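[job 0412] stage=complex_fold ligand=adenosine-5'-triphosphate status=START
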Amino acid sequence: MGRAALAGLRLTWQAGRAGTMTLLVIAALGGAAVPVAAWLGKLLIDEIARGRAADERLALALALGTALVGSCAAVLTYAGTYVGARVQRAVNLHVEDELNRSVNDLVGLRNFENPVFHDRLRLAAQGAQSAPSVLTEFSIELVRKTLTIAGFVGALLAVWPFMGVLLVIAAVPAFFAQLAISRRHAATVETMMNTVRRQSYYRSLITESQAAKEIRLFGLGDLLRARSHEALASSSGAELAVRRRNLVVESGFSLLNAVVAAIGTAVVVVGAVRGTVSIGDVSLFIAAVASLQGAFTSLIMQFGQVTESLKLFRHFVDLAGSAPDLVDGTTEAPELREGIELRDVWFRYDDESPWVLQGVTCTIPAGASVGLVGANGAGKSTLVKLLCRMYDPVRGSIHWDGTDLRELSAATLRRRTAAVFQDFMQYDLTAAENIGVGDLSGLDDRRRIEQAAAVVEIDEKIRSLPQGYRTLLSQSFVDFAAGAGFAGVNFSGGQWQRLAIARSLMRRDADFMIMDEPSSGLDADAEHQLGVTLRTLRAGRTSLLISHRLNTLRDADRIVVLAGGVVAEQGSHDELMTAAGEYARLFRLQASSYQDERVALP
Ligand SMILES: Nc1ncnc2c1ncn2[C@@H]1O[C@H](COP(=O)(O)OP(=O)(O)OP(=O)(O)O)[C@@H](O)[C@H]1O
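[job 0412] stage=complex_fold status=DONE, emitting structure tokens
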């Protein structure tokens, strides 16, 4: 917890140095103001109690002083709240940025495909948002209450010193009980995070457009509503159980405080009746007991909050300082001259999962176009992830011009690669940005973007949009460029696919081009045209094309057939057809479904 506390304080300090200092000063002044006001009050009462012998001007000055100090304390409280909000804002900005940086720094995909990581990420965000402010508030409260306590201890010592012992005795068990409660609460938050995320998922399914069609068609609304309700009831039920225990424990300690305060009051009242204690001392004593009990309770509760937040904040500290999921190489990926070689590559997603690749050995020669064929689940997309170094092979290795991918810096390797993934992204960005993000150096280069769009024949469609290339492609956000209230425009599946291809074409000079099912959503004309375009683009360039439509791979220099986790066959289309193996069977099967006597043979 010490490491997390230090990290939290450092983070607050880095985010808002001036604000934190101001808060501490405000807290010190505010803390001192309370006992000063009480002492002035006591002097005032004692002066009034002197009756006719009282000094009228002194009493007036004391009354004014009490009021002034009291109002200063109130203003300081408001000022503290405002400065606190400023510090909190600075911390939030800093934390959000740090969290995003930590996630961006992950080289591979393993964490993103692991639910435990997503739980931790949410816990880290929660801890990082709350811990720095809770820690700051606690530090401030500590300053404020220490001054308050110091200011009132004198009053207790002067009137009935044993009261101090009673107050401390009552505070010790409250402290440990609060500590236990806080730890339990933090543990509940951790345990429930998966359920909380599930509930968010069900709610997003219900509210967002992506699933709206199926939910209506299949009548899933009530099912999802019930599941969302169940998840929420479960997580909030666990939270409530912790609160119930809190209630019992905190009520018990409030009672104990009341008994202690009653004993103290009884003692000083008896003293006042016997004339050994002045009326001013009685009022000061009662104020001191209330303030000290308030200070102890507040510090104990805040310490509990600190304990809880720090437990969650540990996830943030661990995440920010965690070892990378893949150790990045240091060698810059050179221009590809010889080719990419897979040497006995074995891969599975984790130790419990079955092997996806079981010794794949093949070569993608530089300048050659290679087609990859295989049944659903054969491991084609997995192979693409390994080639982009999103994962490392469990056994075996992949070589870029003879250098193991593990030795290459992933960023430079990826800069030399252009890819259209099977599950490509549809960004809620403008049409130009949807293409331009394919190469950040060309994000503002409209000419390059338009050229890429023209190759996949989406240029004209984009120009016809209300704001042309500046049109927002989204139905979730308002397109402010078009005017308030204008929703963005949505594209059809095939149009989105063309955009994804155009995005990859922003890297026309990349050494290695990967296309994973680039034409699956295209209409017949577009597919034909894309085939022609890809043939031109791939000519003389290193490329890997994955497709279930075998006719699009026909002219590849080499076709690799993946089956059972290994390369089952490889060769040119003619060689594979002559070999009459699996590829030939699949090709004939597909061709037969197109046979029609009205189609003229070439
Ligand atoms: N992130 C993952 N975690 C665990 N298993 C996975 C993951 N991604 C894929 N798999 C499994 O790996 C196997 C290969 O999947 P992959 O997506 O590579 O197949 P594919 O050949 O591209 O299939 P398709 O032709 O259907 O696109 C499948 O059995 C799949 O369930």
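The first strand starts at residue 339 and ends at 347.
[job 0412] exit 0
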